[in-house]
Write a structure and sequence with these properties.
The complex is a heterodimer of chains A (about 350) and B (about 350). Chain A is of the alpha/beta class and about 350 residues long. Chain A is built from twelve helices and eight strands. In chain A, a hairpin with a 2-residue loop joins strand 5 and strand 6. Chain B has a seven-stranded mixed beta sheet with strand order 3-2-4-5-7-6-12, sandwiched between helices. In chain B, strands 9-11-10-13-14 form a five-stranded mixed beta sheet, with helices on both faces. A two-stranded antiparallel sheet of chain B has the order 1-8. The chains are: A alpha/beta (about 350), B alpha/beta (about 350). At the A-B interface, strand 2, helix 5 and helix 6 of A face helix 3, helix 5 and helix 6 of B.
Chain lengths: ~350, ~350
């Protein structure tokens, strides 16, 4: 199945800084997500990672491009397919890998696993495995910023499947009604688990529907990191300027199955191959090579560095301690504070 | 957790003063809004309407629409927004009209509020207070009358409170807001009009412990919320028959105060649990099980339970009354525990009780 791309955002006249170094940084960031997840597959096959694991491979341009538009003060609310969001947000690969190994050094102390990555220091609010469940939460983070007069953006990622959930519509209404500083990023990868968009949405033009709530809404080529970054910057600027929530429909595709348990029988191999021709990572590498900004040697150095980083993450996760069972009941409620004397 | 809050209200008059449960709640809200700028109230009709039960009447004029925030009919969105605001350092008080409607926000309450702290390895405490009405007795039929607080008391990560007295209505909110974790406050709809003297020395309320509302020696009536007045009336009735009933108000439904409950039963050796929830899988079932586990050798009689009939609460007055725990049923249960099953006020009292085929006799 293919999507018509009639409503993609046009490029602004003045582009943000896209010096060669920046372009290389985007490539490195996307490659990190790709290589990290490829290693996750190996670790999953080796039974070092268990549970549900949802890969982001094919969608890297979205996380990386959107994150370019956010500052360290902004907040990110994510889904269960969040390795890419977390890495792009700066959560160290080591902390994520350890989390997936269930180790105490993991970013959620091993209590969350692949679907529940959190890093409050980086204002990364996870890691929500209920489709649409992070949306009201993101509205609340944005509401708090509005009430305390902070010029921050809360960015909420969710998939096309969330469009069928009441929580999307309730949140869109609330956010638009109250003019909340919220950046809604819908990753339309054309499938809600195994159900194609046309089989789960009455109207498949999601940006059009979001616009119906009175939000600025654009559809964006989610396979092009430059297009994503442009749109995200403009939307984030609009949010910061106080013009209320903005909605971005990122038209993207996941190359892998919904989860490691999914045999992927619901879509044609030909469709997947067709989308792989638009691979966001290799697409950018190709453009950089053509612009003479990326040599084979530089690519090889980049790959070596990422491999070393991920090797290090795996080794650290292997060696890390597990939370003692005596701590099982910790963090159900906050620690008891000593009574004042 | 230790409730360490201190009263921050302006000193009350030295003498007791007349108030209602509704006014006491409003006063608690006003105090919270006035002393902590992070506090705001959000919910359906809390502003211009003055609250569905009139609790927040006048607060909009006093604190403005940013802090007395009318929300759309979107339980999931505004409860979730409260959770997000709490994560960002605010102290939201979210009002849900009734516990029945809270089911539309159950995902947010259970999967987020109760879970985020643990799932994040201790990074994300959620200091939110969610208030809602519960209970029957006002002929509102099934979808406005259920008592589901026991469901919430099932969930680790939540604190569940049920203020039953004027003092608790007035002074429970401050410690609830001081709690770094989510607190649910269940206000029984039949209590709002309750009036009486608010003791001059009332508060602060200890939200870690149950309260013995009446001392007794023969049987412990263990209850909470809207059933407390019924249990106290039953204790009066029993006293007339020479039976001394102790009345324990749970006050906090999670975590349960085993020590106070068990301490009472260790004195009286008999227990009747009164719970407006359905008997099957109820809070009453949990308390009964704990008494059996922890106080088996203290008990001189099987633990009795007086719960709602296993039926969606009906509209018709006669049927609604029959479905709910009533004073005569509590008296009868207490008498059974002391081996004196004679009904307090004539044989037809027991005949009025329908046979409950699903849950056994009430």
């Amino acid at each position: 199945m293919s999507t018509t791309r009639t409503r993609c955002a046009s490029r602004p006249a003045t582009r943000p800084n896209r010096q060669a170094a920046h372009r290389m940084a985007l490539l490195k960031s996307m490659l990190r997500v790709r290589r990290f997840e490829e290693r996750c597959v190996e670790m999953y096959s080796a039974a070092r990672i268990r549970g549900f694991m949802h890969l982001y491979i094919g969608e890297e341009a979205v996380a990386v491009g959107v994150n370019e538009a956010l500052t360290a003060d902004d907040a990110v609310v994510s889904t269960y397919r969040e390795h890419g969001h977390a890495l792009a947000r700066g959560v160290p690969a080591e902390a994520i890998m350890a989390e997936m190994f269930g180790k105490v050094t993991g970013c959620s102390r091993g209590r969350g696993g692949s679907m529940h990555l959190f890093d409050v220091g980086r204002r990364f609010y996870g890691g929500n495995a209920i489709v649409g469940g992070g949306l009201p939460l993101a509205a609340g983070l944005a509401l708090a910023d509005r009430m305390t007069g902070q010029g921050r953006v809360t960015c909420c990622f969710f998939g096309d499947g969330a469009f069928a959930e009441g929580e999307f519509h309730e949140t869109a209404n609330l956010a638009a009604l109250w003019g909340l500083p919220l950046l809604l990023v819908c990753e339309n990868n054309l499938y809600a688990m195994g159900t194609a968009l046309a089989r789960h949405q009455a109207q498949t033009d999601l940006a059009l529907r979001a616009a119906g709530y009175g939000m600025v809404s654009w559809a964006v080529d989610g396979m092009d990191v430059f297009a994503v970054e442009d749109a995200a910057r403009r939307a984030a600027e609009g949010v910061r300027a106080g013009t209320g929530p903005h909605f971005l429909e990122m038209r993207t595709y996941r190359f892998r199955a919904h989860s490691m348990y999914d045999s992927d029988r619901y879509r044609d191999k030909a469709e997947i191959e067709q989308w792989k021709e638009r691979d966001p990572v290799e697409g950018l590498a190709r453009r950089l090579r053509e612009a003479k900004e990326l040599t084979d040697k530089a690519r090889s150095v980049l790959e070596d560095r990422l491999a070393a980083e991920i090797d290090g993450a795996v080794a650290a996760a292997e060696q890390a301690a597990e939370e003692p069972v005596e701590d099982l009941l910790k963090y159900v409620t906050s620690p008891v504070e000593a009574s004042p004397p | 957790m230790t409730a360490t809050h201190t009263r921050t209200s302006t000193p009350t008059a030295p003498s007791d003063r007349k108030t209602t449960y509704r006014e006491a709640m409003r006063e608690a809200l006003r105090e919270a809004l006035g002393t902590d700028e992070r506090v705001f109230l959000m919910g359906e009709d809390v502003g211009r309407y003055g609250g569905c039960f009139g609790v927040s009447l006048g607060l909009l004029e006093e604190f403005g629409p940013e802090r007395i925030r009318d929300a759309p009919l979107s339980e999931s969105a505004f409860v979730g927004a409260g959770i997000g605001a709490a994560l960002a350092g605010m102290r939201p008080i979210v009002e849900i009209m009734t516990v029945n409607f809270s089911l539309l926000a159950l995902d947010q309450i259970l999967n987020n509020a109760a879970t985020l702290l643990h799932m994040s390895g201790g990074q994300l405490p959620v200091p939110i207070v969610i208030r809602m009405t519960t209970g029957a007795g006002r002929q509102l039929a099934a979808q406005h009358s259920h008592s589901l607080e026991g469901w919430y008391a099932h969930i680790p990560g939540l604190r569940v409170l049920a203020p039953a007295t004027l003092t608790d209505a007035r002074y429970m909110l401050a410690p609830a807001l001081a709690d770094p974790d989510p607190v649910l406050i269940f206000e029984h709809g039949s209590l709002y009009n309750a009036s009486g003297e608010l003791p001059a020395d009332a508060g602060p309320v200890d939200i870690d412990h149950a309260a013995v509302r009446r001392a007794g020696t023969d049987v412990s009536l263990i209850t909470y919320g809207g059933s407390l007045p019924k249990a106290l009336a039953a204790a009066d009735d029993l006293a007339g028959g020479g039976i001394s009933a102790e009345v324990v108000d749970l006050r906090t439904l999670r975590p349960l105060d085993d020590a106070t409950i068990g301490g009472s039963v260790a004195r009286t050796h008999r227990a009747v649990v009164v719970d407006e929830g359905w008997r099957t899988g109820s809070l009453a079932a949990e308390i009964s099980a704990r008494l059996t586990e922890q106080h088996f050798y203290d008990l001189d009689a099987p633990v009795e339970r007086v719960c709602s009939a296993e039926v969606p609460i009906p509209y018709a007055r006669r049927l609604e009354e029959a479905a709910l725990p009533q004073v005569h049923g509590i008296v009868a249960a207490a008498r059974r525990t002391v081996g004196d099953p004679v009904p307090a006020s004539g044989a037809d009292e027991t005949k009025r009780q329908p046979v409950n085929r699903e849950g056994g006799p009430r």
